[in-house]
TrEMBL record:
Pfam families per record: COX15-CtaA (PF02628)
Membrane topology reported for the UniProt record: Multi-pass membrane protein
Listed GO CC annotations: membrane
Keyword Membrane part of the UniProt annotation: yes
Organism ancestry: Bacteria, Pseudomonadati, Bacteroidota, Chitinophagia, Chitinophagales
Main location: membrane
Keyword annotations: Cell membrane, Disulfide bond, Heme biosynthesis, Iron, Membrane, Metal-binding, Oxidoreductase, Transmembrane, Transmembrane helix
The protein, known as: Heme A synthase
An annotated Gene Ontology molecular function: oxidoreductase activity
Organism: Ilyomonas limi
InterPro entries: COX15/CtaA_fam (IPR003780), COX15/CtaA_HemeA_synthase (IPR050450)
Keyword Protease: no
């Protein structure tokens, strides 16, 4: 029995780590660090990125490894062989990097992006360990759990590939949204595994079933609307060189008003769902998480709107809305 408990705790850890990855990704975005590493999976051609500007500038009499990057004449170059440089830059030793030409170095952006990649890497290890554990515990008895665990790795591999595309195409916004929706899908799979292993009896209630399904769908729509608003913010902020934050909200189009209005519908549904869940002990905890998350998300949304989109609030708004939808999904699995 204890081994199941430990497996459950590990799956919960996986779920929590996914939220850490979502948060890290959002911090990358709000600090504009996505291109902090112009290449992938290395960063400026290194396993550990540079910490000083001079490391990415041409250095005379320096040993360069094949694939190492420098910024030269506002352009990204990489060493086409391992060599020792002479007194002056020799074009024959270097190749122009073609995938993008983000020829800037900002140590904070580079390290934020790098830490983001590390959190994703740790997630990869957690998922591999999860598959091995699932195979040992359920390989012969409940294969479906093993398959769900395997699907975590497939989805994550796709997500990593999408991450690479995002970098190679200089952060094209639609792909960023897809990237986020996939992260939510991976979290949903983790919730399914927890639900299956716990095998707790479901609450029977037609009204609760419908109410939770509708709330889940409304929040999903709200998240897609949110990513639409966020894509606009990305464009507006870029056009204003990430300054004049007081102008960002006023430049949003009608999707923002829809997002703001649907928020109230989502909030009312969540409060009603909480209220309806009170008589059911098994639902109370998840219902409380839903209530807390929706209150937090709406509050942070209002702060975004009235306080000119403070950078620190952006990742929190995303984090709470992600936890909200996953909690709603977990809730939905508990009723039939
Ligand atoms: C149930 C309630 C809500 C949910 C689930 C929700 C969800 C989201 C999501 C997922 C994003 C995209 C964030 C990102 O990709 O970084 C977003 C962005 C945004 N939301 Fe909401 N939201 C809610 C309520 C509100 C409210 C009430 C407001 C304000 C009136 C608001 C204002 C914004 C703004 C301004 C953005 C763009 C922020 C940015 O670019 O980082 N949201 N929302």
């Amino acid at each position: 029995m204890q081994q199941y408990q430990r497996y459950l705790s590990f799956t919960r850890l996986l779920l929590i780590w996914l939220f850490v990855v979502i948060l890290a990704g959002s911090i990358v975005r709000t600090t504009h660090s996505g291109m902090g590493c112009p290449d992938w999976p290395t960063c400026f051609g290194n396993a550990i990125p540079p910490t000083q500007e001079y490391q990415v500038r041409f250095q005379a009499d320096h040993e360069y490894r094949k694939g190492q990057f420098i910024i030269y004449n506002d352009s990204l170059k990489y060493a086409n062989k391992t060599f020792k440089s002479g007194a002056a830059y020799n074009p024959a030793d270097w190749q122009q990097y073609e995938k993008n030409n983000y020829a800037k170095f900002n140590v904070y952006q580079t390290w934020i992006e790098y830490i983001n990649r590390l959190t994703t890497g740790v997630l990869g290890f957690i998922i591999i360990a999860h598959i091995i554990w699932s195979w040992r515990l359920f390989g012969k008895t409940r294969r479906s759990i093993l398959y769900w665990s395997l699907s975590l790795s497939l989805l994550t591999a796709f997500e990593a590939w999408l991450g690479k595309i995002v970098v190679d195409t200089n952060l094209e916004v639609v792909k960023i949204t897809l990237h986020m929706l996939f992260a939510l899908l991976i979290a949903a799979v983790a919730v399914i595994i927890i639900h299956k292993v716990k095998a707790a009896p479901k609450v029977v209630g037609k009204q609760l079933k419908w109410l939770s399904t509708i709330t889940l769908l409304v929040v999903l729509v709200q998240i897609v609307l949110g990513t639409e608003v966020r894509e606009q913010i990305d464009e507006i902020s870029l056009a204003l060189s990430y300054t004049s934050r007081e102008l960002w909200i006023s430049r949003l189009n009608g999707w923002f008003e829809v997002h703001r209005d649907v928020a109230w519908a989502a909030a009312i549904l969540c409060v009603y769902l909480f209220w309806q869940s009170l008589p059911h002990k098994v639902l109370q905890r998840t219902a409380f998480i839903i209530l807390a998350c929706v209150a937090g998300t709406v509050l942070l949304g209002l702060i975004l709107m009235y306080a000119n989109i403070p950078a620190a609030v952006q990742p929190l708004h995303l984090l709470l809305s992600s936890i909200l939808i996953i909690a709603l999904f977990a809730y939905r699995l508990k009723v039939k």
